[in-house]
Design goal:
InterPro entries: RWDD2A-B_C (IPR059181). This protein is α+β, with helices and mostly antiparallel strands. The protein has a single domain, classed as Alpha-Beta Plaits (2-Layer Sandwich). It has a 5-stranded mixed sheet with strand order 4-1-3-2-5, sandwiched between helices. A hairpin with a 5-residue loop joins strand 2 and strand 3. It is globular. The protein starts with a strand and ends with a helix. The relative contact order is 0.26.
Length: 119
C-alpha cells in the first residue's frame, strides 16, 4: 500500500483545544502527524494511507485555522524517500529548525522546502 503525505501551513498553532482535536483525529485515522506549534508559522505534516491523510487534512480545514494553506496536497511519497517506521499519532516540535530536521531525517527536505516556498 503506497503511503501518502501532505503539508499544511497556518498563521500559528496555539490552541491546545484544537491540538487535542487533531491528536484524536491522527489516532482515529491511523496516521502520523507532526506539528510545529506555539507560534508563527504553524506547520503540519501528515503521513499515512491515502484516505487517512485526506481525512486528517479535512479535519484541519474544519478547524478553520487562520491563514490555512494546503501547501502540498495529499500525494504519494516517492519510492526513493526514506520511510522510517513511525508510530501513528500526533507529535509536536517547538521550532521550524526542529521541523526541518524531522523532514531531513525522512529524506523529504526538498519536498518540504518547496511547500514552505524556501526553494
Amino acid at each position: 500500500m503506497p503511503l501518502f503525505h501532505a503539508l499544511i501551513r497556518t498563521h500559528h498553532i496555539t490552541s491546545r483545544k484544537k491540538v487535542a482535536h487533531l491528536r484524536k483525529a491522527a489516532s482515529k485515522f491511523d496516521c502520523y502527524a507532526l506539528l510545529r506549534s506555539g507560534g508563527c508559522p504553524g506547520i503540519m505534516y501528515c503521513k499515512g494511507g491515502e484516505e487517512s491523510v485526506k481525512e486528517w487534512v479535512g479535519t484541519v480545514q474544519r478547524l478553520r485555522y487562520k491563514d490555512f494553506q494546503l501547501a502540498l496536497k495529499p500525494a504519494p511519497i516517492e519510492s526513493k524517500v526514506i520511510r522510517p517506521e513511525e508510530r501513528t499519532g500526533l507529535f509536536e516540535v517547538e521550532s521550524v529548525k526542529e521541523f526541518a530536521a524531522a523532514m531531513e531525517k525522512r529524506g523529504i527536505s526538498d519536498w518540504w522546502k518547496r511547500g514552505m516556498e524556501f526553494a
